[in-house]
Amino acid sequence: MDNQKTGALIRVLRMEKGYTQQQLAEQLNVSAKTISKWETAAGYPDISLITQLAQILDTTSEELLLGNMPNDRQNGGNMKRIKFYQCELCGNVLTSTGNATISCCGHKLLPLKARIMDEAHTIHIEELDDDFFITFTHDMTKEHHICFAAWVSYDRVMLVRMYPEQNAELHMNLPRRGDFYVCCSKDGLFHMKL
Ligand SMILES: [Zn+2]
Ligand SMILES: [Zn+2]
Q: What pLDDT digit, counting tens, does each position of 75-110 carry?
């Protein structure tokens, strides 16, 4: 059992059900703090609770222990399947985790294809007390700049728009494991696993 994966799954499924930690806790006769511990991998559910928890969350004990998203949810629910779209006309950035038809300014947009980060589009991450400080060694001119950066984990995404003439740096706060994307105005989308 992988506490991290199981915890992340419990959180995703609980939110899909629309339960607060307190509401889920009551159904299991545990405290909200206990649920919080499971979700942050600081603890894990007692084996005697797994079956009941799985039933409440509409999954199986096996999936819960493995921390795998049930198959029928994978397309829509998992943020790691995120696709990015950018409108060339207005610069709008859109995302989708399923099969969606995205359009902007009257045009259908195709998902950006991510390449592995190269030297010019890489990032440097510094861990601070309560967030991460991320810097780029990339131009930020009007003709050639980073237009957005995104940090994607299992259940969330943080997307930051960047504009010409600003400093090539930003602050983000997400779980350390995930995927990092950088989009360049000239060279397209780049990706790195964290
Ligand atoms: Zn547009
Ligand atoms: Zn570039």
A: 445 777 899 999 999 999 999 987 789 999 999 999
Find the helix or strand (DSSP H, E) in which 126 lies.
strand 123-127
CA–centroid distance, residue 138 to ligand 2 (Å): 7
Neighbours of 99 (CB within 10 A): 9
Cα 89 to ligand 1 centroid, rounded to whole Å: 5
pTM over 0.90: no
Tokens of 161: 């728009």
Q: State in Å: Cα 166 to ligand 1 middle.
A: 22
Residues 6+ apart with CB under 8 A from 61: 50, 51, 54
Cα(13) to centroid of ligand 2, in Å?
A: 38
Domains of the chain and CATH, by start: 3-76 (1.10.260.40), 113-193 (2.60.40.730)
Q: What is the pLDDT of residue 69?
A: 67
What separation in Å is there between the alpha carbon of 118 and the centre of ligand 2?
10
The proportion of the chain whose per-residue pLDDT surpasses 90, expressed as a percent, equals 59
Q: How far is the CA of 186 from the centre of ligand 2 (A)?
A: 5
